[in-house]
Structures are given as structure tokens and as C-alpha cells.
């Protein structure tokens, strides 16, 4: 029983990370049907910003996280303005190819600047170690992750449900043409959402450092997980992404803990079955 | 662009579907020149025959992807799954004591075809993002399974102890790659003829119809699900044969043969060459493999920087690949046959 709770805790922390890295992609995909495979490159950028600021400039860890957010957001705005906006009306194959080209370039650039090794990083002492509650070891950093991600999720949900901006986003996801007809500037809205999503991915990359590590293959390795979250959760659904990320995080941890012989086979199998069962995802409307 | 060419061909050809197909299927001088040029490496670059054989094998793989992606509009990010099934089948047969290459090819094609036929029932029902995720997921699943099945596949280290017997009992697979290139080229040519025949049949025309408008085709009575299943199985067989050829000529089979990387690579090659043109994958494979060989002094990680740049440039400025660009140029200069 006790190890099960521990696995649940670790899986939840992992799921929170996956959620942060994928929620932006889910919303932008739902709004514009734009398949952005480069989404995890923003997360990788956030990770490298955090590492560089900490190791080269001596910033404290917590101060680097907003910087990672800003870096992810800035990069996504630049890419959206230069490349992506030309492809909103293109087919998904062209979108895939364009963005996978960006993934390749980001990986090569990261390898050129930082080398292919894992990046070293030292957590501040107040985030290290673990404490025991009712016989379960809880790592401080993972608890921190869960709290931060839960806060962000709450803010996102509130923004989406009860602000004017959120209502516009929901309208654009539901029916883009109708939203345009009502005078909503969907292009501007989309650019803002895209930046927000890129920023959250950057933040996720920074937060992922102590747990998942960072090397240039990050952009491809976790892209697959992010795609699973998005397609299982359903396009344009924050709640769907959250549930899917949690399921994936816990299932992956449990699989590695209880049936290590199966490796990742279980995850892919579950994903295939889910997509065949609900092609639009758990919470998807289309 | 393709519909334009179709329309241009239709206006030039006499009326009637049979005449239209026959006019499409006519051999052009540029095609004959292309196939004669494939013999040049024997004379001009005998030191690079191993590379040439790998180009021919990869071209065959790209051709199989062209059949489903270029002609039928089925986007797949996991086509290496069938390449890998063929590669491992040929490897396993050899390890178990039967290294005869031609029967190995047949067995590999059969195995990949069976896997392809089974998966095609799922593939035919999905489109868009769900289809991309299913093909990708299946490819990753198979790679993970091969990694876990250590006892069968050798896992991470690859399959050990593959030996390929003499081709037809006469030609040894030599160090310089004479036999390898001749073998791969012959295989490519024969299968190319088959693919060309399929594309220029009424069935091939129906596939292009599905690509252009999958809602209208059932309305005129085309059974699109069974058409997609058929072409997907054929493509899987061809991919399996390509995989078997790679195993037989290199005498290795590794996990890398069914990974995401290979799926992405072959997609890039096809896009660079131009989809839906039969020759696109062939040209793309040659350009890609030769360029990679030339740049192999570079850090392999850095090679992907240029591939990424190339992809972006192609998608933005040359949406129909090299062949599409050449066609445009030829039409401007009015030299297209």
C-alpha cells in the first residue's frame, strides 16, 4: 500500500510537468489546428536558460524560472510571426515538416553550444532532501513541483472560465469562424495564446531540470509524451490535458516501478487504445 | 500542382479513361535516361558502391512511402515499423540457418505484409492528427517491444550472426559492394515497375481521387476503406523488402532500423524529392544520402541543423520538392516532354 502512494506522488509530480509542457500546445492546436511539433523545443530553451543563468551568472534557481517563461514566450512569438502564421491554412503534413525542421535545428544548436552531455545543476538547499509523512518519503522538490503546477493550473482555469480573454479563447476554440464573425481578433488572440503556451513550456523545461535532466535530445524525447497528452486529452481542452498528463505520469511511474520488463511498451499501448477508442481525445469536441 | 499536371495531361490526351491512363503510362525519355544513369556508379565511382547500394535501398523505402503518402494522402510518421519488420525477419531467418537472399526477401515481404494488412484496418479509419499519432505510436511500440525482446532480437546490441549466402549461388556479397549495388538496384527497378503499373491502373487513379477528395470518392462508388487497406499493405510489403535488403547487404539488423528517426528521415527524403511523382523518393534518397556521406565529417548532431534548414526552405519555397521545382522550370522553358 505504501509504495503505491509513493508511486502516486512521484507520478503526480511527473504528470504536473507534462501538463505544463503540453497545455499550450493543446490550446493552440484546438484553436488553429496548427500541429506544432516544435513545442518541446520551447521547453528545452527554458531548461537551457535556467541552467545558464544559474551556472554562469549565479542567479538563484527561483529567479531563473520567470526568465525561462519569458524566453519560451519570446521564442514562440518570434517563430509564430516569422514562420507559423503562413501555415495556418496549410495541411498538417506541411505543418509537421516545418516544425520538425525547427526541432532539428534547435537540437543541433543546443548540441553545438552546450555539447551532448546532461547539464549539471545544483538545487538550492531548501528544495533538496525529503521528509516522511505517514511512512511515505516525499521529496521536497516534487512537492514544490506539485504545488507550483497546481497553482498555475488554478490560475489558468480561472482565467479561461471567468475573464473576457478566456471567453474569447473558448469561443475561438469552439468555432473560429463564428468568433471572427463576432468581431474577435482571432489572429491577435492566437498570437497571445501561443506566447503564453510557449512561456508555460519554457517554465516547464526549467522546472523539469532536477527531475528529468536536460540534453539536446530533450526536444524529441518529451515531444512524444507531450503529443500523447494532447491527443489523449483532446484538442483545446485544459481539463483534458490535465487529466491525460496525470494519467500518463502515474501510469509511466507505475509501469517503471511494477513491471520494468515491459519498459515503455505499456504507455504506447495505452495511448494507441485510447486514440482508437476516442479519436478526438477524452475531452475533445471535434 | 498535381491536379494541374493531371488536367494538362487530360487536355492533351484523347478522350476516354483508357486512353488517358495509357498516355500517362507512356515511358518518357527522361525516365529512360534516369535508369541508365543509375548504372553509372559501376563505372564512375566504383569506390562508393556500398553507399550506392544503400541509396538504392533507401530509395525503395521512400518509394513505398510515396505510394501511401504521395498518391493516397495517408500521412505516416511510423513507416519504419514495416522496414524494421522486414529487416528483422531477414536477419532472423539468416541466424536460424537459411541465408539465401531471394527467399529471405520473400519471407520479409510476407511478414511485413501481414503486419501491414493487420494494421491497415486501423489506419484506414483515421485521418489527421489521430492518424499521425497512431502511426507514430505503433512505430514506437514496435521499437520498444524489439528492445524488450532481448532473447529474440538481441535488444539494444542488434541481431548478431547474420550471414548472407551467395546471390543465386554465384555472386558473393563482396567488400566493394558490386553485388550489393547490383542486387539493390535490380530489386529497386523491378519493384519500381510494379509500383508504376499500380499507379497507372484504374486502382491508382482511384487512390489519387481519395487523396484529392476522400468525401466525394465514396459518392461515386469507390470503396475507399478497402482501397486504402490494399495500398497500405502493398507499401508495407515494399518497405519490408527494403528492410530485408539492408539487413542482407550489411549483415546487421539493429533497433535503429525501426525507430522514429528512420521514419522521419524517409519522410524528409520524400518531401525533398517531391511527393506523388514516383521518382521523388528516389531523387530525394540520393540527394539526402550523398549529402550525409559528404558531411559525415561533421558532428552528426550538427548535420541535423542543415536538414532542418533544408526542410523549412522546402516547405516554404518549394512545396513540391526538387522534382516539382524542376517541372516548373521545364514548363517555363517549354522543354517538358
Structural commentary:
The complex is a heterodimer of chains A (286) and B (337). By secondary structure, chain A is mainly alpha-helical. Chain A has a single domain, classed as ABC transporter involved in vitamin B12 uptake, BtuC (Orthogonal Bundle). Chain A is built from eleven helices and two strands; from the N terminus they run H-H-H-H-E-E-H-H-H-H-H-H-H. A two-stranded antiparallel ribbon of chain A has the order 1-2. Chain B has helices spanning 2-12, 17-25, 29-37, 40-44, 49-70, 80-95, 101-123, 128-148, 150-153, 178-199, 202-212, 216-219, 224-250, 260-273, 280-294, 300-317, 321-333. The model of chain B has no long low-confidence stretch (mean pLDDT 84). Chain B has one domain (2-333): ABC transporter involved in vitamin B12 uptake, BtuC, CATH 1.10.3470. The two termini of chain B are 17 Å apart. Chain B has 337 residues and is mainly alpha-helical. Chain A binds chain B through residues 29, 35, 83, 86-87, 92-94, 96-98, 100-109, 111-112, 116, 216, 220, 224, 227-228, 231, 235, 261-265, 268-269, 271-272, 275-276, 279-280, and chain B through 69, 75, 77, 122, 126, 128-130, 132-134, 136-138, 140-141, 144-145, 147-148, 260, 264, 267-268, 271, 299, 301-305, 307-312, 314-316, 319.
Q: What are the main properties of this structure?
A:
heterodimer, A: 286 residues, mainly alpha, ABC transporter involved in vitamin B12 uptake, BtuC, two-stranded antiparallel ribbon, 11 helices, 2 strands, 74% helix, globular, B: 337 residues, 17 helices
Topology (elements, then pairings):
The complex is a heterodimer of chains A (286) and B (337).
Chain A: H1 2-32, H2 39-57, H3 61-82, H4 92-114, E1 130-133, E2 136-139, H5 140-162, H6 164-174, H7 176-181, H8 186-212, H9 218-233, H10 238-258, H11 265-277
Antiparallel strand pairs in A: 1-2
Chain B: H1 2-12, H2 17-25, H3 29-37, H4 40-44, H5 49-70, H6 80-95, H7 101-123, H8 128-148, H9 150-153, H10 178-199, H11 202-212, H12 216-219, H13 224-250, H14 260-273, H15 280-294, H16 300-317, H17 321-333
Helix pairs in contact in B: 5-10, 5-13, 5-14, 5-15, 6-7, 6-13, 7-13, 11-13, 14-15, 14-17
Amino acid at each position: 500500500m505504501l509504495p503505491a502512494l509513493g508511486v502516486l506522488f512521484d507520478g503526480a509530480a511527473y504528470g504536473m510537468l507534462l501538463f505544463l509542457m503540453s497545455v499550450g500546445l493543446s490550446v493552440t492546436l484546438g484553436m488553429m489546428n496548427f500541429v506544432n511539433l516544435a513545442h518541446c523545443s520551447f521547453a528545452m530553451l527554458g531548461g537551457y536558460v535556467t541552467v545558464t543563468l544559474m551556472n554562469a551568472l549565479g542567479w538563484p534557481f527561483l529567479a531563473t524560472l520567470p526568465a525561462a517563461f519569458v524566453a519560451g514566450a519570446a521564442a514562440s512569438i518570434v517563430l509564430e510571426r516569422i514562420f507559423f502564421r503562413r501555415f495556418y491554412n496549410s495541411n498538417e503534413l506541411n505543418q509537421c515538416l516545418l516544425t520538425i525542421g525547427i526541432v532539428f535545428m534547435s537540437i543541433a544548436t543546443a548540441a553545438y553550444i552546450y555539447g551532448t552531455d546532461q547539464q549539471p545543476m545544483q538545487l538550492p538547499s531548501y528544495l533538496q532532501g525529503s521528509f516522511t509523512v505517514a511512512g511515505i518519503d516525499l521529496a521536497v522538490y516534487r512537492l514544490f513541483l506539485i504545488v507550483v503546477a497546481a497553482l498555475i493550473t488554478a490560475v489558468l482555469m480561472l482565467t479561461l472560465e471567468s475573464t473576457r480573454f478566456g471567453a474569447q479563447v473558448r469561443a475561438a476554440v469552439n468555432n473560429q469562424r463564428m468568433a471572427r464573425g463576432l468581431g474577435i481578433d482571432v489572429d491577435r488572440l492566437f498570437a497571445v495564446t501561443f506566447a503564453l503556451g510557449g512561456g508555460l513550456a519554457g517554465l516547464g523545461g526549467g522546472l523539469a531540470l532536477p527531475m528529468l535532466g536536460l540534453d539536446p535530445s530533450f526536444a524529441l524525447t518529451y515531444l512524444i509524451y507531450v503529443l500523447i497528452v494532447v491527443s489523449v486529452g483532446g484538442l483545446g481542452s485544459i481539463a483534458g490535458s490535465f487529466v491525460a498528463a496525470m494519467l500518463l505520469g502515474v501510469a509511466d511511474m507505475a509501469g517503471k516501478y511494477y513491471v520494468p520488463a515491459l519498459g515503455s511498451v505499456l504507455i504506447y499501448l495505452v495511448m494507441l487504445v485510447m486514440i482508437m477508442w476516442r479519436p478526438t481525445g477524452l475531452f475533445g469536441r471535434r | 500542382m498535381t491536379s494541374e499536371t493531371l488536367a494538362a495531361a487530360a487536355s492533351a490526351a484523347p478522350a476516354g479513361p483508357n486512353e488517358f491512363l495509357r498516355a500517362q503510362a507512356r515511358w518518357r525519355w527522361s525516365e529512360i535516361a534516369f535508369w541508365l544513369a543509375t548504372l553509372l556508379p559501376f563505372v564512375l565511382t566504383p569506390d562508393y558502391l556500398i553507399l550506392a547500394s544503400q541509396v538504392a535501398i533507401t530509395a525503395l523505402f521512400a518509394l513505398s512511402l510515396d505510394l501511401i503518402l504521395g498518391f493516397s494522402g495517408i500521412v505516416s510518421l511510423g513507416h519504419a515499423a514495416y522496414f524494421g519488420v522486414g529487416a528483422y525477419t531477414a536477419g532472423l531467418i539468416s541466424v536460424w540457418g537459411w541465408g539465401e537472399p531471394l527467399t529471405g526477401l520473400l519471407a520479409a515481404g510476407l511478414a511485413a505484409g501481414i503486419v501491414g494488412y493487420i494494421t491497415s484496418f486501423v489506419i484506414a479509419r483515421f485521418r489527421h492528427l489521430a492518424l499521425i499519432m497512431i502511426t507514430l505510436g505503433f512505430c514506437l511500440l514496435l521499437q520498444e517491444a524489439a528492445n524488450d525482446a532481448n532473447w529474440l532480437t538481441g535488444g539494444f546490441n542488434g541481431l548478431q550472426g547474420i550471414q548472407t549466402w551467395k546471390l543465386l549461388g554465384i555472386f558473393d556479397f563482396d567488400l566493394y559492394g558490386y553485388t550489393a549495388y547490383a542486387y539493390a538496384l535490380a530489386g529497386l527497378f523491378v519493384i519500381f515497375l510494379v509500383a508504376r503499373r499500380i499507379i497507372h491502373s484504374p486502382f491508382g487513379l482511384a487512390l489519387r481521387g481519395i487523396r484529392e477528395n476522400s468525401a466525394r470518392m465514396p459518392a461515386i462508388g469507390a470503396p475507399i476503406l478497402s482501397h486504402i487497406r490494399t495500398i497500405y499493405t502493398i507499401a508495407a510489403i515494399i518497405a519490408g523488402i527494403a528492410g530485408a535488403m539492408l539487413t542482407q547487404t550489411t549483415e546487421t539488423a539493429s533497433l535503429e532500423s525501426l525507430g522514429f528517426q528512420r521514419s522521419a528521415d524517409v519522410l524528409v527524403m520524400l518531401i525533398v524529392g517531391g511527393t506523388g511523382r514516383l521518382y521523388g523518393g528516389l531523387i530525394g534518397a540520393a540527394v539526402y544520402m550523398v549529402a550525409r556521406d559528404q558531411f559525415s565529417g561533421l558532428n552528426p548532431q550538427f548535420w541535423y541543423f542543415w536538414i532542418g534548414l533544408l526542410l523549412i526552405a522546402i516547405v516554404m519555397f518549394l512545396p513540391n520538392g526538387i522534382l516539382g521545382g524542376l517541372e516548373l522550370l521545364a514548363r517555363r522553358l517549354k522543354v517538358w516532354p
